[in-house]
Write a structure and sequence with these properties.
single chain; Aspartate Aminotransferase, domain 2; 2 domains; three-stranded antiparallel beta sheet; 10 helices; 34% helix; serine biosynthesis; amino-acid biosynthesis; Phosphoserine aminotransferase; cytoplasm
């Protein structure tokens, strides 16, 4: 049987061990007689799952004690509205600064404009969203409420490999980072950010769960229009149990956190991700048959867009890849081409199989 490798951008591949454990526990979790799907979210069984998941995530990212971990719903797109609704009550007349680096930061800008005055401090539109604008070109507001970054653009394949220092220029504005598609793939300094958020369906678990990591002093500033279920202060005060949370998604996320610990933690995972990304980019750079258009210093380790020079071969490429067990390689409809998402759960063998296939396809179509 052909080994299947799923390169979907999200919902994305999960570790096989996690899926096997979830299958084994589907009908009876730890002798409780219940599936996790059937448990009361306030019962002792699920509370133990929730507590372990929060504890393991705090350990994996070395999250300081003055940050709250919230498990919410609404996805990354929903959080683009929830962020300004929670932060603009703190400084309602201040602008929000955005660095526009691709599709997702673009969506964030449109959503924030409903709740705040937006200043696009820098945009990569002129380079086709293939590079992060040079830091010295950013026109930051001296009194910004916060600075919003999408630190990995899932569609465009652009990733920040630095943490920008914005405090002096903005009067101490916190950085809000959408890390949906690369959280837990690399070591980060959580204390450099005021808020980190992300949908779980890339590196963490199934769709339906959104993570928010927020510094405590940024709680309690929600606008009156903010629904209570999305008010971070209320959610934090209730341990993410103000309303029924996405219980099964939290359970799967907890299993992924345990799996990450068994792999050696985030630092070990980062080393693996560097090896996988280097293998694929090195091949792309060695051939004229394919191309990656992202500036080398800004390339994402998680989402690798590429194009066939002869795009009339796209359909045949995808069909042949599928026949070889290489799935979900079609690029996003807004940019075309191909995209290989190589999240934590994608083994090195999967990237090796992809490169082997790409090399063979190129050799037979050149």
């Amino acid at each position: 049987m052909t080994t299947i490798y799923n390169f979907s951008a999200g919902p994305a591949v999960l570790p096989k061990e996690v899926l096997q454990q979830a299958a084994a526990e589907m009908l009876d979790w730890h002798g409780s007689g219940m599936s996790v799907m059937e448990m009361s979210h306030r019962g002792a069984e699920f509370m133990s799952i929730m507590d372990a998941a929060q504890r393991d995530l705090r350990d994996l990212l070395a999250i300081p004690e003055n940050y709250k971990i919230l498990f919410l719903q609404g996805g990354g797109l929903g959080e683009n509205a929830i962020v300004p609704m929670n932060l603009m009550g703190r400084r309602p007349d201040a602008p929000v600064d955005f660095i526009h680096t691709g599709s997702w930061s673009g969506k964030s800008i449109k959503e924030a404009q409903k709740y705040a005055t937006v200043n696009v401090a820098a945009s990569a539109a002129s380079n086709g969203f293939t590079a992060i604008p040079a830091r010295e070109s950013w026109q930051l507001s001296k009194d910004a409420a916060y600075v919003h970054l999408c630190t990995n653009e899932t569609i465009d394949g652009v990733e920040y490999h630095f943490v920008p220092d914005v405090a002096e220029q903005t009067g101490g504005a916190p950085i809000v980072a959408d890390m949906s598609s690369h959280i837990l793939s690399r070591v980060i300094d959580v204390s450099a950010y005021g808020v980190i958020f992300g949908g779980a369906q890339k590196n963490i678990g199934p769709a339906g769960l959104t993570l928010v990591i927020v510094r405590e002093d940024l709680l309690g500033h929600a606008l009156p229009v903010c629904p209570s279920a999305f008010d971070w202060k209320i959610v934090a005060d209730n341990g993410s149990m103000y309303n029924t949370p996405p219980t099964y998604a939290i359970y799967i996320a907890g299993l992924v956190f345990q799996w990450l610990k068994r792999q050696g933690g985030v630092a070990a995972m980062e080393a693996q991700n560097i090896a996988k990304a280097s293998l694929l980019y090195d091949y792309l750079d060695s051939t004229d048959f394919y191309e990656n258009r992202v500036a080398k210093e800004c390339r994402s380790r998680m989402n690798v867009p590429f194009f066939l020079k002869d795009e009339s071969l796209n359909a045949e490429f995808l069909a042949s890849a599928k026949a070889q067990g290489l799935l979900q390689l079609k690029g996003h409809k807004s940019v075309g081409g191909m995209r290989a998402s190589i999240y934590n759960a994608m083994p090195l063998a999967g990237v090796q199989a992809l490169v082997h296939f790409m090399r063979e396809f190129a050799s037979t179509h050149s």
